[in-house]
Amino acid sequence: MAAMVAPENTPVWVNTDRCKACDICVDVCPAGVLSMKQEPRSVLGAMISVIEPGACIGCQECELSCPDFAIYVAERKEFKFAKLTDSSKERQEAIINNGWRLPADYKEAN
Which has more confidence, 45 or 63? Predict the structure, then answer.
């Protein structure tokens, strides 16, 4: 099997054809990069979405915890990742508290 090549300037991406929308990756992401979104064509009515790619810290927790090998994180030599910030932690907490979805009325703390 060939190595997965990251799309240019993309820290994390999802193969939605493989994803079963279990939301495990959303739960383990410490930076609030991932969220579930409504997707009527999905069996569960939701699908993973990369909502804040610039906040990705490259920890690979999402990739390592995905039971379907559907999420990928760029290599450190290919991408300069962000630092974990308080606003990222707050966004993650809001996502978890809202059933693994970013609240519609969520405003980023500045």
Answer: 63
